[in-house]
UniProtKB/TrEMBL annotation:
It comes from Paracoccidioides brasiliensis (strain Pb18). InterPro entries: SAM-dependent_MTases_sf. This is Methyltransferase type 11 domain-containing protein. Coiled coil: none annotated. Residues 219-232 have a biased composition (Basic residues). CDD domains: AdoMet_MTases. The lineage of its organism: Eukaryota, Fungi, Dikarya, Ascomycota, Pezizomycotina.
Length: 314
C-alpha cells in the first residue's frame, strides 16, 4: 500500500519522501513485504485478535448469514471500506459480513495484491475489488477534469465510495503526517450509525513494562502487513527461509522504508485516539489494547502493544 502516503505530501506523506516516490517504492516492494515470515506471523496474530473480537466490533449481526447476504441487492446489504488496504488485511477477516468490500490504496502494486486476494478468496469483482486512489485529492468540477495530484488514481468522490457501513484502517496512521485529518476524511465516508476501526501502535502508559524498551536501533518499517526488517541473516531470524538474495533485497529497501514513517505520530496514546475519534464525529468509542507485545526490531522503542479503537458515526 502505501496508502500511508496519499498524494498530498503535506497531509499524509511522511517526511523525506514525496508521495509519488513513496507510492513507487511500496508498489515495487510487494514481493518482499508479503514474503517475510516475521510479517506473516504478525498478520496472523492480529487476524486472530480480530476474529476473537467480532462481537465487540458490532458487525456480526449484519452480514454473512444475515440481512447483508440475503438482501439480494446492495440497497439492503452492507458494504465495507478497507483503507490502506494492501493485500486485503481487514477484508480477509470481515468479508463474510458484507455484500461488497472495497479496498483503497495509493500504491498500484498493493491494489494488484488486493484484487489477487479476491480471487484467492473466491470473490468476484461485484463482491470485492480494490482501486488506487487518494482521499485528499481535489474533486473534479466537471466531467473530464483531470485531478492534479502527485499520484493519479480513481475519482473517490463518486457515490460508490461513500455510505459505507464499516470503514477500517490497520497500522497505517503512523505513516500519516496528519492522522486526524485522515480519520475525518474516512468518517465522512461512513453512513450514519456506521462503524469505524483503527489499529496502530499504542503509546505505553507511564511506568508500564513496555515503556522505554528499545528495538535494535534501526529505523524503517511499513504499515500493516508491510512492516519488515533487516538483520544479519540468521537461520532462525525474521528472514528464515527467505534466501540470501531475498534478504539482500529487503536490506536495499530499508533506507527508503524509513522515510515513509511520520516523525510526529509513530504511536498514539489512548487519550489521543479518543480525542481524534470524538472530533471526527464518532461516539461509543472503545479501545482494546493487546495483552501481548509486538516487537518491531528496526524501530526505536520497537516493543509495543497495539490498540484496536472502535467508534460509531452519529
Amino acid at each position: 500500500m502505501s496508502s500511508s502516503s496519499p498524494a498530498i505530501p503535506a497531509t499524509v506523506a511522511a517526511s523525506g519522501m514525496s508521495a509519488a516516490a513513496s507510492e513507487e517504492f511500496w508498489s515495487n516492494s510487494v514481493d518482499i513485504v508479503f514474503n517475510i515470515q516475521w510479517a506473516k506471523d504478525l498478520q496472523n496474530k492480529i487476524h486472530e485478535f480480530l476474529k476473537n473480537n467480532i462481537e465487540w466490533l458490532g458487525i456480526a449481526h449484519d452480514g454473512g448469514s444475515g440481512p447483508a447476504a440475503s438482501s439480494g441487492g446492495e440497497a439492503g446489504g452492507k458494504k465495507m471500506l478497507d483503507f490502506a488496504c494492501g493485500n486485503g488485511f481487514l477484508t480477509r477477516v470481515y468479508h463474510p459480513f458484507f455484500i461488497k468490500c472495497v479496498g483503497v490504496d495509493i500504491a498500484s502494486g498493493m491494489i494488484k495484491k488486493y484484487n489477487e486476494a479476491a480471487i484467492e478468496l473466491g470473490l468476484g469483482p461485484e463482491k470485492m475489488y480494490g482501486v488506487r486512489g487518494d482521499i485528499f485529492a481535489p474533486t473534479p468540477t466537471k466531467a473530464g477534469d483531470v485531478v492534479a495530484t502527485a499520484v493519479v488514481g480513481t475519482d473517490l468522490s463518486r457515490e460508490e465510495f461513500f455510505n459505507f457501513d464499516f470503514v477500517g484502517i490497520a497500522l497505517a496512521l503512523h505513516h500519516m503526517e496528519d492522522p486526524e485529518s485522515t480519520i475525518v476524511k474516512l468518517v465522512e465516508r461512513l453512513k450514519s450509525g456506521g462503524t469505524f476501526l483503527a489499529i496502530d501502535r499504542v503509546e505505553p502508559e507511564p511506568g508500564s513494562e513496555s515503556e522505554g524498551k528499545e528495538g535494535c536501533g534501526f529505523k524503517g518499517h511499513h504499515h500493516q502487513h508491510h512492516h519488515y526488517q533487516h538483520h544479519h541473516h540468521q537461520e532462525d531470524g525474521p528472514h528464515k527461509g527467505c534466501g540470501h538474495k531475498h534478504c539482500a533485497a529487503a536490506a536495499d529497501h530499508l533506507s527508503q522504508a524509513a522515510h515513509t514513517i511520520s516523525h510526529k505520530h509513530n504511536k498514539f496514546s489512548r487519550q489521543q485516539v479518543k480525542d481524534m475519534f470524538g472530533r471526527a464525529g464518532l461516539t461509543d468509542v472503545d479501545i482494546l489494547v493487546t495483552d501481548w507485545t509486538v516487537e518491531l526490531p528496526n524501530v526505536p522503542n520497537g516493543v509495543n502493544k497495539l490498540f484496536f479503537a472502535r467508534g460509531r458515526k452519529v
